[in-house]
Write a sequence for this structure.
């Protein structure tokens, strides 16, 4: 499997390229581009949430928790009226969000999951992307378009991670597969068939009740059309 540095570097390059492409093409503004880049990098390391034995992973998850907590505090203050206790409230929100993400969500996942288990699967990452859509839309009150873009960047970053692990599972010089082949990028496991069925049901239900994806799809289509026209 690829190491932490490789995942971080490739995820950052891919996310930067996509965010720049979207910003230059007018799909979103500079602020959204920065958040998309950061979310893409998070997605690029998200499948290793079940590997907290790694020191770089621990450091990254701490930074990710700080980022999410800061974003939560910023969005909280944006929707509040000015007052003498606004700063204190924002700090409490920041601290609460950090504890929930770092020691609640990430801590629980790393404790309950096995490395290269269901977390290293396409449907699991699709579920995480949809959670990001729900969080942005219902939690932070963002538009459906931006919410789907955030979820999309998270999912694409995760796919970059899974593909990298599969590439590293091939012994190119010996032209043979390593034992780890097929454990990173997968859609289903017979040994865990019931769990995967439940996972797909959750993904379907989340997609069914998610905000309208058409604005994001229209924006991406217009972006592709614009660049295609310029190329021709």
């Amino acid at each position: 499997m690829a190491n932490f540095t490789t995942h971080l570097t490739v995820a950052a390059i891919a996310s930067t390229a996509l965010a720049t492409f979207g910003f230059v093409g007018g799909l979103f503004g500079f602020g959204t581009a920065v958040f998309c880049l950061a979310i893409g990098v998070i997605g690029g390391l998200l499948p290793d949430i079940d590997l907290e034995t790694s020191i770089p992973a621990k450091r990254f998850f701490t930074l990710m928790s700080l980022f999410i907590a800061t974003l939560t505090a910023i969005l909280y203050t944006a929707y509040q009226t000015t007052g003498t206790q606004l700063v204190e409230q924002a700090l409490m929100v920041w601290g609460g969000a950090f504890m929930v993400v770092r020691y609640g969500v990430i801590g629980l996942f790393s404790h309950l999951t096995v490395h290269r288990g269901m977390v290293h699967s396409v449907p699991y990452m699709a579920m995480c992307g949809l959670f990001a859509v729900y969080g942005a839309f219902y939690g932070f009150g963002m538009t459906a378009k931006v919410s789907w873009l955030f979820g999309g960047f998270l999912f694409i970053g995760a796919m970059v991670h899974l593909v990298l692990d599969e590439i590293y599972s091939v012994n190119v010089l010996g032209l043979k597969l390593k034992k780890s082949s097929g454990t990173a990028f997968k859609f289903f496991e017979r040994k865990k068939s019931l769990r995967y069925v439940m996972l797909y049901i959750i993904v379907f239900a989340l997609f069914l009740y998610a905000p309208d994806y058409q604005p994001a799809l229209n924006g991406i289509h217009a972006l592709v059309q614009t660049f295609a026209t310029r190329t021709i």
